[in-house]
């Protein structure tokens, strides 16, 4: 097993990389794991990095790499270390055609002495790289063989594509083709392109057909033609016809029979037993634009749809909803339970003093043993103490008490302070016949002086009366004055601060949670898709505010119920709860716009939730604590607290909320002291001596010690909450205004202005002039531009759904889109191709209104996007590159949502939803939540969203990404039916076959400009370079070799007798292959052998002067004389044309670095 692992390399479907390791470190690690020779490891790493073009990323960590670079590194890991068996699972997924093609070249060069097993969804990739191809289904191999073998066995043959001129007679062309190839069939007749299917077994008849087509091009009114062999994608579909469909929504195959009247547009049947499609009549469910809801009806319909969306999301995302509802009440319950156990400010009770309060002490006393009175007093003193108190008797003459205490303190000062509290000395006075009693106390204890005196006084009492009588000492503080109560309430604000802090803590999580869905919609482009579907900003944010405000009020009401249940002083009566509800209600009007503005700072919902929660907790609570401390009268810095209070209240809604809750509670406590009729009377009349007692409650007369209280709880003066309520209203207005500016991209516009100072028209034209000098404009592009610019708008609108005039976008000094001019005709599919960075996405964003236009105009159905953006967006459908769907909605709910946003009358919505789900073949999944959809079905749903409402222009950005070939063809059929209904489609795709199948015209963008424009066949004829020739040499016995050689001499007119004396003793197959190679090199002088594997030879013939008839004539003659089992001829593919232009883009990128 170890030897197997050392020779095995794997590239998994999803990259498995270490974020902290660099590219070189990854390769070193896996090379060593495979046991590669240590001395050769570095050279092997250098070789892999060079072949995969990873040099510029050699020292870059994996976490900094883009998806395409990560795939390259994963392939490098599989190849490094001399792996003999390499398994590649979709190695080019996520790559554009240019990078995909470059990786193919690497794999072609690396497959020598290796066995490579590759899985892919790209049939062309399998065709190019696979020496043998196996198609699997349900865990079993359905077919296996070389690409040529599979194409011959399952393919329909050749596809003949012609470019018609306006006066072309299709019937004449059909008659001509059938006269030469009786089995030929028409496959489609769309726009300027006419397509036929020519059976592969009739290839010997193609010479005569192509010769006559070349002679009669002008008579037949065709400007050009080309042919292509069956693709592997068609083979895949044909194999699928033999399988039973288990999932109709995932698999679909169009009909194979075509007739001149058959458009080839089909929709899959929901029957699992048949592959025949059924048409969906889109016109039958259509309606006139004027039947759409408008005005207040449209607003109400959109508002209902947006609210229903939020309700369904909250219901199905119940964990988030539950946390919103219970976190705030949960934290409050914990806080109130804790506060119930804490003491509140009150008058101190009387305290009886005694040595017992210290729980075990050592009481030293000194007596004079020669004096009877001293001894008796000492005995009485010691008899007062029981366990755990202990007495220590000392002799006055020999053992000094002071020395004893010093010795104990030195031994353990901590124990000494805890257990040595009092002591006594009984010393006789001989001269006066008296005894002096001296008591000692430890001043670390507050009450030790009184206790020391108490002990010796009781000793003296018992000495004289010899009875059980004793003294007791009680410390009873005086009742607090009004000033003391007010000061204590201001300083010891534990309960008020804890309640306000808890409200702020819970509110931080609640408010932050409202950002999650907003950011999720924006980051997934769902919000933009809704706007393109007709939603205006007011409807979107008003619906969001209504639902979020309702979710905000529910926990707030639960908080009120908890205060009522706990009978919290100052916050539990009806009037008090009403004030608190008013506070929460107005706070919501500022907090929600605040969090909406913050959503523009984040791309990840989870990051926003955590950071907004921490911001509100740390900043809000820290500011409240700061102001609360600074307001303590004893600190004397109240002049600092006041401006800070105003500043924080204006800027931070959470601080204002906590401050207001604290003020409500504090003001209630102060009102208990001061809001009494008799106190008001004394204050007004200054009645002595009572005035001095109530002076702190007398506003304006309290001198230094004042109790801040307001009878009107909504007063603007502290501790009233009127100031906070006013700030909430102000914050709501400010944050709402800021939200509008953010939605209008004001900040981005300001940033561009600051960076570029000012973009003047003259500067734009100068950049364009520079580019126009470097790039020669294609004549087709120039003709389109002149046609659009010189034709009146009225005439253009009559034939075009989309008109773009001199569309330009500039970011500072970067010219992303450079004077694009084109029109999209009614019923036309217009392809927009280009590598990343060419300007496709920017063009889409400007046309859909998501990006501002630097200069130029865009007209959709006669409306200017710059002046009537809402009307334009209601007339277009948009399928973004990445699915902008809400996972918690079902397919039916998603389509219903966008139907309502477009203003479709409610009675028509069910029919629209049903028809589109059938058209795109996902009706069986219509009631599933989107999160349960496969990638292909999500693309179908996104396309259905773009088509809902019958918009005249539909923009599709790579609509078939992630689909298998069968589902992809089904999508094509549906889109062709949409085109037949008269609507226009603007398509971007990385699949050249998709563009050929759908687009009647397409353009290739390079550096923001159009490089070419025309039908796919026109571009191949104009920019293509030659033909592709595939030859399969047959295997046969040696006995037949002599006959073949004689025939070859006869055909080629080589002098000499036909004998078998020179017959080689080697392998006859090798001789056959050499003869075929010699024939190709002799017949097609410029032919290049691209690849040779066993009996399969792949040639490229770059000679553009060759004709189809010449190639087929030569190959048919050679097939009679050489051991050629089969062959196929193809023209330059559209992808090859695309890659030639892509090199210009890459070159431009290099120049700008």
UniProtKB/TrEMBL annotation:
It is found in: Membrane. SUPFAM superfamilies: P-loop containing nucleoside triphosphate hydrolases (SSF52540). Gene3D superfamilies: P-loop containing nucleotide triphosphate hydrolases (3.40.50.300). GO terms for cellular component: membrane. InterPro entries: AAA+_ATPase, ABC2_TM, ABC_transporter-like_ATP-bd, ABCA, P-loop_NTPase, R2_ABCA1-4-like. Pfam families: ABC2_membrane_3 (PF12698), ABC_tran (PF00005), R1_ABCA1 (PF23321). It comes from the Eukaryota. It is a multi-pass membrane protein. The keyword Nucleotide-binding applies. Keywords: ATP-binding, Membrane, Nucleotide-binding, Transmembrane, Transmembrane helix. Residues 802-1032 form the ABC transporter domain. One of its GO terms (molecular function) is lipid transporter activity. Its main location: membrane. The chain crosses the membrane at residues 503-519, 540-566, 578-603, 610-630, 725-750. PANTHER family: ABC TRANSPORTER DOMAIN-CONTAINING PROTEIN-RELATED (PTHR19229:SF250), ATP-BINDING CASSETTE TRANSPORTER SUBFAMILY A ABCA (PTHR19229). This is ATP-binding cassette sub-family A member 3.
């Amino acid at each position: 097993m170890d030897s197997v692992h050392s020779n095995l390399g794997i590239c998994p479907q999803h990259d498995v990389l270490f974020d902290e390791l660099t590219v070189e470190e990854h390769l070193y690690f896996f090379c060593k794991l495979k046991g590669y020779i240590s001395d050769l490891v570095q050279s092997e790493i250098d070789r892999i990095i060079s072949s995969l073009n990873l040099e510029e990323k050699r020292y870059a960590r994996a976490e900094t790499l883009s998806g395409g670079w990560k795939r390259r590194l994963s392939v490098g890991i599989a190849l490094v270390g001399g792996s003999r068996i390499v398994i590649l699972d979709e190695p080019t997924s996520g790559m554009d055609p240019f990078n995909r093609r470059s990786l193919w070249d690497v794999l072609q060069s690396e497959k020598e002495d290796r066995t490579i097993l590759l899985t892919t969804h790209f049939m062309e990739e399998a065709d190019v790289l696979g020496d043998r191809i196996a198609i699997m289904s349900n865990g079993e191999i359905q077919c296996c063989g070389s690409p040529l073998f599979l194409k011959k066995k399952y393919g329909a043959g050749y596809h003949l594509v012609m470019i018609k001129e306006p006066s072309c007679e299709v019937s004449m062309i059909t008659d001509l083709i059938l006269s030469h190839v009786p089995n030929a069939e028409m496959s489609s007749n769309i726009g300027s392109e006419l397509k036929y299917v020519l059976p592969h077994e009739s290839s010997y008849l193609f010479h005569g057909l192509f010769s006559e087509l070349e002679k009669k091009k002008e008579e037949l009114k065709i400007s050009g033609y080309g042919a292509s062999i069956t693709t592997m994608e068609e083979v895949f579909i044909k194999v699928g016809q033999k399988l039973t469909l288990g999932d109709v929504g995932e698999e679909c195959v169009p009909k194979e029979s075509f007739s001149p009247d058959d458009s080839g547009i089909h929709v899959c049947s929901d029957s699992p037993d048949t592959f025949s499609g059924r048409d969906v009549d889109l016109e039958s469910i259509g309606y006139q634009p004027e039947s759409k809801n408008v005005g207040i009806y449209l607003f109400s319909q959109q508002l209902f749809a947006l609210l229903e969306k939020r309700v369904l999301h909250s219901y199905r995302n119940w964990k988030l909803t539950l946390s919103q509802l219970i976190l705030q009440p949960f934290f409050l319950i914990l806080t109130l339970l804790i506060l119930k156990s804490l003491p509140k400010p009150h008058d101190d009770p009387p305290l009886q003093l005694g040595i017992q309060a210290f729980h075990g002490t050592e009481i030293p006393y000194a007596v004079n043993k020669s004096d009877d009175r001293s001894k008796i007093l000492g005995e009485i003193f010691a008899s007062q103490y029981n366990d755990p108190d202990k007495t220590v008797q000392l002799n006055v003459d020999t053992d000094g008490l002071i020395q004893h205490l010093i010795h104990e303190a030195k031994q353990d000062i901590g124990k000494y302070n805890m257990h040595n509290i009092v002591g006594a000395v009984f010393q006789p006075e001989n001269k006066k016949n008296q005894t002096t009693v001296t008591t000692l106390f430890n001043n670390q204890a507050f009450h030790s002086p009184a206790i020391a005196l108490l002990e010796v006084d009781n000793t003296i009492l018992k000495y004289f009366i010899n009875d059980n009588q004793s003294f007791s000492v009680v410390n009873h503080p005086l009742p607090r004055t009004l000033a003391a109560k007010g000061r204590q309430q201001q300083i010891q604000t534990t309960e008020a601060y804890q309640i306000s802090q808890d409200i702020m803590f819970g509110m931080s999580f609640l408010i932050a949670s409202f950002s999650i869905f907003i950011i999720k919609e924006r980051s997934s482009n769902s919000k933009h898709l809704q706007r393109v579907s007709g939603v205006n900003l007011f409807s979107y944010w008003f619906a969001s505010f209504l639902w979020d405000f309702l979710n905000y009020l529910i926990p707030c009401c639960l908080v009120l119920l908890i205060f009522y249940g706990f009978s919290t002083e100052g916050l539990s009566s009806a009037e008090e709860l009403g004030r608190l509800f008013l506070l929460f209600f107005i706070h919501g009007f500022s907090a929600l716009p605040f969090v909406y503005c913050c959503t523009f700072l984040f791309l990840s919902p989870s990051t926003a939730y955590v950071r907004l929660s921490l911001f509100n907790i740390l900043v809000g609570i820290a500011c409240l604590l700061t102001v609360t401390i600074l307001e303590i009268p004893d600190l004397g810095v109240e002049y600092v607290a006041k401006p800070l209070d105003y500043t924080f209240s204006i800027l931070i809604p959470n601080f204002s909320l906590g401050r207001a809750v604290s003020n409500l509670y504090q003001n209630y406590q102060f009102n208990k002291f001061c809001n009494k009729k008799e106190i008001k009377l004394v204050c007004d009349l200054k009645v002595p001596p009572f005035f001095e007692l109530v002076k702190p409650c007398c506003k304006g007369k309290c001198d230094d010690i004042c109790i801040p209280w307001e009878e009107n709880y909504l007063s603007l003066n502290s501790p009233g909450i009127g100031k906070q309520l006013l700030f909430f209203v102000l914050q709501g207005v400010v944050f709402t205004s800021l939200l509008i500016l953010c939605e209008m991209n004001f900040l981005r516009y300001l940033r561009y202005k600051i960076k570029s100072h000012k973009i003047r028209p003259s500067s734009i034209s100068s950049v364009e002039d520079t580019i126009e000098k470097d790039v020669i404009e294609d004549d087709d592009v120039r003709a389109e531009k002149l046609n659009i610019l010189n034709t009146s708008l009225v005439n253009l609108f009559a034939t075009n759904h989309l008109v773009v005039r001199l569309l330009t976008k500039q970011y500072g000094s970067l010219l992303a889109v450079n004077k694009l001019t084109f029109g999209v005709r009614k019923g036309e599919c217009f392809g927009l191709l280009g590598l990343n960075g060419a300007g496709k996405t920017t063009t889409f964003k400007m046309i859909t209104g998501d990006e501002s236009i630097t200069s130029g105009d865009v007209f959709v159905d006669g409306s200017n996007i710059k002046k009537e953006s809402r009307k334009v967006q209601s007339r277009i459908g948009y399928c973004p590159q990445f699915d902008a769907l809400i996972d918690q909605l079902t397919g039916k709910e998603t389509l219903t949502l966008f139907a309502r946003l477009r203003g479709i009358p409610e009675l028509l919505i069910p029919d629209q939803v049903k028809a589109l789900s059938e058209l795109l073949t996902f009706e069986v999944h219509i009631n599933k939540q989107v999160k349960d959809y496969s990638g292909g079905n999500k693309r179908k749903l996104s396309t259905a969203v773009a088509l809902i409402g019958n918009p005249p222009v539909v923009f599709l950005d790579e609509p078939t990404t992630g689909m298998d070939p069968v589902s992809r063809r089904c999508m094509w059929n549906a889109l062709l039916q949409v085109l037949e209904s008269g609507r226009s489609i603007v398509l971007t795709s990385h699949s050249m076959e998709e563009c050929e199948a759908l687009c009647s015209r397409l353009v290739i963008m390079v550096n923001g400009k159009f490089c070419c424009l025309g039908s796919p066949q026109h571009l191949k004829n104009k920019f293509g370079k030659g033909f592709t020739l595939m030859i399969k040499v047959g295997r046969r016995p040696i006995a037949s070799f002599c006959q073949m050689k004689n025939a070859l001499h006869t055909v080629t007119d080589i002098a000499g007798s036909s004998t078998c004396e020179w017959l080689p003793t080697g392998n006859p197959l090798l001789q056959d292959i050499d003869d075929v190679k010699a024939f190709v090199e002799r017949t097609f002088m410029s032919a290049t052998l691209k690849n040779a594997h066993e009996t399969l030879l792949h040639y490229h013939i770059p000679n553009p002067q060759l004709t189809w008839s010449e190639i087929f004539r030569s190959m048919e003659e050679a097939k009679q004389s050489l051991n050629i089992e089969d062959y196929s001829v193809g023209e330059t593919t559209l992808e090859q044309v695309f890659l030639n232009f892509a090199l210009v883009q890459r070159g431009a990128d290099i120049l700008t670095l």
